[in-house]
Each structure stands twice: as C-alpha cells, then as structure tokens.
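Help wanted!
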Amino acid sequence: MNRPWLLWIPLAVVAFIGGLAIYGLAVPKDEQVHSAMIGQKLPAFSLPAAAAGVEGLASGDMVDGKPRLLNIFASWCLPCKAEAPYLDALKKAGVEIDAIAIRDRPEDVAAFLSEFGNPFRRIGSDSEMAVQLKLGSSGVPETYVIGGDGTILYQHIGDIRAEHVPMLIEKVNAAK
Amino acid sequence: MRMLALICLMLATPVFAQGSGPTPALANRQLPDPAQEAEATKLMHSLRCIQCQGQSIADSDAHMAGTMRAEVRQQIAAGQKPEAIRGWMIARYGEWVSFEPDMKGAGLLLWLTPLLVLIAGIWLARGLFRRGA
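Answered by r_m:
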C-alpha cells in the first residue's frame, strides 16, 4: 500500500454525508414560499369592491406618494381573524391599510368586517386568486409594505401578532 | 367514554378553508388547439404548486394550482413560449417554483455532481485494477 491516505477517503465521504444529515435535522426547514417581487413595482391590477359599502382596489390607488400596508386576507381564514386586532392597532397608529380578499363572497366579507371591524381604506375582491399570483403571494394572510411610488418593500407571511406591530409601523415610517 | 367520543365526532364540522370563489375557466378546461394544450401540459408538469409544495400544478387539486394552470394556458394561448412562462413564475416565487433547476449557481452543482461522482469512481477503480494486475 503505497498511498495509505486513500483509506481515509471513504470515511471522509461517510462523515460528510452524516454531517449533512445532522445539519438537515438540526436546522428547521423554512416552509414558507417568499415572494420574489420585493423591490419591484406592484403589478397592474384593478379589483372590484369585496363587499357593499367599501371601495375596490386598483394598483394605481396605492401610488399616491404615501407608504401603506397591503393585507391579503379572506373571511374563511382563521389566522385572519386572529390578526384583526393587530391590524386595528396599526390603523390606530396612523398606518393606512388596503386589502385584497381572496376567494370570497361579498356577504361573507361583510359579515367578517362587522364582526372583526374594518381597518381598511379599500378592499378589492380577488375571487380567482389571479392578483395573488401576480404578487407572488402564496397564501392568506400576508401583509406587504408598499412604498409611496408603488414599490413592494416587504412581505410578512402569516398572521400579524403583537410583536410584529412595531416592526411594521417602523417599516412604513422608514418608507416615508 | 364511547358516547363522549361519538358526540365529539358529531360536533366536528369540516373546515371550509378553501373559500368560495369561482374556479378560473382555464384551470380545468383544455385549450382548443391540441398542440398548445400539449405544450401547456408539459410545462404544468414541471411547475410546483405553491400551496401543496410537493406536487406539480398539473397534479394538484389546490385552488392555487388551478389559478396557476389557468395562467399557464392563458399565456400559451396568447403565444407565449413555455420557458418565458417559467421565467414569469420564477420572477414571482423564485427558483423554488420550477421542478427543473437552472444550470447556474447551486443548480449547476446539482447537474454536475453525478458526472463528478462518476469520474471520481473511475479514478478509484482504475487504481484498484492496477494494483490487482
């Protein structure tokens, strides 16, 4: 055996594969699908009102020089109910919030708003999820920070909890 | 105890977590032109459903998959090339949405690894044969 170091190669390979396995177990998997649209302009869309008495939402409505939040929600979505008080808190802090209701009926949206309050300026109805697809959004609820020029600045996946409220206020203020 | 379980079962209601919107027309209806439909179907088998994650949009019953199928068919019908549509999806959801990794960066490593392993194997085997001889 003139090259004894060759013996160590199989061990090194097995150790490497074992290391990968341990790494895969130790590091929690990120199951969320993040939008690749961050930093880009809102796609053009125009959605009808999601319920009687509210205004619909077009991409142009969010290009008025004022940063705001865009909340993707649905009346049938449980975490959307859980985040309602925090959307309310954001509104009370002076943050303007627009919304898109996904796969919803006007009467269901109206019932949702009367039960959980309406912190939204406008609510568009995306009944076929077409705008959700254009936004790179993967589910409900999601909340985007939109710059005053219509640029998508940040995506929050999942419900807004108490600890996210100051962070979102700061992101909206930073965009001013 | 059994009675309690029975009552619990009767109280359980299925979760209507899918909403009540319409399904896009092109989600489940084929394009009139068979060549275009074949092109669309081939692409749909290589795009990953956002909602169910492990399945292609051709195989998935999720509503998001239906919306994605409709988008693919619309763009194909409008004369868009399949690879451009894949690019459109990747621009929104990242490389993750495609089942065919790109030949660059980590994707390139993925494509080249089998070749590198084969070369390493030949090299190791060659050493063994020479020693045996």
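OP: Thanks! One thing I noticed: Chain B has a mean pLDDT of 85.
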